[in-house]
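Sample entry (173 residues):
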Amino acid sequence: MSILIELLPSAGPVLVVGGGAVAARKVRVLAEGGFQVVVVAPVIAGEIAALPGVTAIPRAFVPVDVDARPWALVLACTNDREVNRAVGEAARARHIPVLVADARAESTTSFPAHYRDGDLLAAVSTSGADPALAARLRDAVAEALGPGRAADVAGAREARQARLAARKPEAGA
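Predicted structure, serialized as tokens:
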């Protein structure tokens, strides 16, 4: 069992080890969410390095990378089982939430399938059972919501801010 939690960029930067297709999908979601991301891998796809907020370091992972900064999250997304295992061990030893892409049992977090429309964020998780199913369900949710929900969220934010501003301060506060 698990819960879904929205992680904010103010939690800190994210370390992603790996520079291929799986890493690219994860880094894209992180960049869209406004995170600062450091990617470490011997080869890093050009699309990753071009994303806003991404620092690409083209070299092999070393365990001290996990000590380099106070990471909010660490992702191991290589095609090398031993590297992924080492990343997971290093992050877990430091109590940093970690996703080990090829080993759910070594992870303390997972990435649900995300749908973003401005500040609207919806996510679907199968708790790692089937990422492709999660993606299909996410697409069904997105279709059901329809386009233009970002405007709804912006309007709701403005209305809430007006309600909060209209409240009178409590006596003695």
